[in-house]
Amino acid sequence: MAQPQPFDAADIKRRMHGAVDALKHDFGGLRTGRASSSLLEPIHVDAYGANMPLAQVASVSVPEPRMLQINVWDRGLVIAVEKAIRASNLGLNPQTEGQVIRLRMPDLTQERRKELVKVAHTYAEKARVAVRNVRRDGMDHLKQLEKAHLMSEDDHKKKADEVQKMTDDTIKDIEQVLKHKEQEIMQV
Q: What is the 8-class DSSP label of residue 29?
């Protein structure tokens, strides 16, 4: 039987923070009343015979709080970019002037804001589950080390407490990010 790897607290911390980073990325795609270039990250455009991310065929800027401006680099792709935006189900209506596409952010209704908050809570729960899975992996690894007599019972207890503290801190971070996003969504 192979020896278990030594315990690596930094790896567990990195994996937990990965869940928080993924949550922030997911939140970036949630539309609030404000314009954000990250809103367009999931959009892919059929260009040059391939399916490419929008960022590879155009630059996105935020000239006003409620407007996105897309500067398409190749004039031949303007229609393809416009088509991709319409097909994205983001509820945005592109207005084209030459190689520039402008997207006005429509006002969100109270009902839509509440739906977005529910989606945000779903994303946060997914992140909490990911953190708890990392915690479980860490705890299982500690048990293996103790069972293989590579760690004393006291060390196991200390490291388990350390993993629990990392878990609690990371879940607090998730709650903080969620609270901030909720305020952003509900702000009229």
A: T
Q: How far apart are the C-alpha atoms of 178 and 41, rounded to whole Å? A: 20
For 9-28+109-186, CATH number?
1.10.132.20
**Nearest C-alpha neighbor of 159 from the set 137, 129, 138:** 138
Supply the angle between the helices 153-186 and 9-28 in degrees, to the nearest 10: 10
pTM of the predicted model, to two decimals?
0.69
pLDDT in tens, 69-90: 999 999 999 999 999 988 876 7
Choose among 89, 101, 95, 72: nearest CA to 29: 89
Three-state secondary structure call for residue 95: strand
pLDDT at 4 over 80: no
